[in-house]
Known about the structure:
Blueprint: H1 17-29, H2 40-55, H3 67-76, H4 82-95, H5 99-103, H6 107-114, H7 120-138, H8 146-149, H9 157-168, H10 178-186, H11 195-205, H12 211-224, H13 245-252
The structure holds iron/sulfur cluster.
The site of iron/sulfur cluster has 14 residues, from helix 13.
Amino acid sequence: MQESHPPRKKLNKPPTxxxxxxxAKDIKKSGEPWERxxxxxxxxxxxxxxxxxxxxxxxxxxxxxxxxxxSIAVILSAQCTDERVNQVTPALFEAFPSLESIANxxxxxxxxxxxxxxxxxxxxxxxxxxxxxxxxxxxxxxxKTLDEMTKFPxxxxxxxxxxLSEVYGIVEGxxxxxxxxxxxxxxxxxxxxxxxxIEKEIMEKVPKKxxxxxxxxxxxxxxxxxxxxxxxxxxxELVNICPSKNVYLSDSK
Length: 253
Ligand code: SF4
């Protein structure tokens, strides 16, 4: 007679992608993240306090020693990480140690130093154009308004806002980079996915004194935990107040 095997134990399978997408669909049915927020002000306050306790005093992670160098670093940071920008700027600023030297530098030479930040043809043109305009129209002193700032080559609202707040402590807008765009949506702080509309909505709903730090906090949190593809909800300190956590939790365990 053949020996009968004991019944096999059922193994708990990890969630498959179809199960994950079903979870996402179920969550979707209960509304977008911003639709799940009942009291916007108190929700925003909770997020801000948590982020403040995590990051405290914050400043731009970009390397610079002169005001115009910060502007150049921010131009370079478009479609590029701050880490990468910090890898190229020390050599660039050493090779061109003054505003005049960078204004007069051949484009090819600027490109040589910034090549690895991507879009280097356009960025080199913007840097040279910015240096010339700052030198000849503003005698080397950065202006203090968003309107003037956004006239520099390579300056969008984001660049202008970062430079104004960092150099003069002037906050005229809410900086929306790729991390801020993603996190404001996931955290239910906005219903939009377009940076200009996000900026407008936050400026209408969040007091001005919080704009600068909130933006930097979201950038840091996006880099450390709330990644675009693999947000680490299981280890996220905002998990209890984040309206998107269930969508991503099964992925991050
Ligand atoms: S809980 Fe997840 S989705 Fe929400 S902020 Fe944290 S990492 Fe991002």
